[in-house]
Amino acid sequence: MSENIDQKTLAYINMYGVLGSLSTLCDTVPEARKILGQTGISVGFAVKDGPRATLTFIGGRCIVKEGAEDCTIRIPFSSPEKFNGMVNGTVTPIPTKGFVHLPFLLGKFTKLTNLLETYLRPSAEQLEDEEFFKNSTAVMFRLIACSVAQIANHDKIGQFSASNIVDGPILLEIKDFAKAALIAKDHRLTYTAKVPKTVMSYMQFADVKTARDLFDGKINSVAAVGDGLVRIGGMISQIDNVNRILSRVELYLK
Question: What φ, ψ does residue 221 adopt, rounded to 5°?
């Protein structure tokens, strides 16, 4: 792995970005809800010197919250590297709480994460299906927006860019499709799917295809702005620094 990638930052991305994207997957993909059924269970992941979060699965949905104490199943990790190993499939997690619910981890949870990988790393053939294309882009949008926040808060280069961002909400939007906000406060960014009524700056992709082409590196962001495919406005210094952080997302999501 590249020396430019910090394992602790990657752990935060894997926790809130990758696993956190299960929330969007369950909201947009019927197959995900079908896998869960009426399951009511929560899984807490506790990473030493790293992120701690709980995924609650209920009513076919996935809710992500910080902290790993109030959960049905608790899985600790001795380091960010171990947690990253679980996400990439090289480390087998062992619960310290809720071992009786191991069938859920080996069954529904594994099926759900496998489905997530399909939407995050689709084949060209799968993307030819319009519904799959849209759902995959929705999941990718959440992952990338959330990853920007984690890199801003934990990656040294990202922290430098974040140190130049003034407080206030930043809107990220795929026009008529998906919205998210990055709330800047004290030079840290917080991802939220609930966009405030008033924002200080915005970055809007013209349509789903434009967003996807940018995510996949098929078009250049600067050129896209020049062509009117990406609109930016408000406090441009916020957007400039978010763009610098955004340029590091690909390093962590390879």
Answer: -65, -40
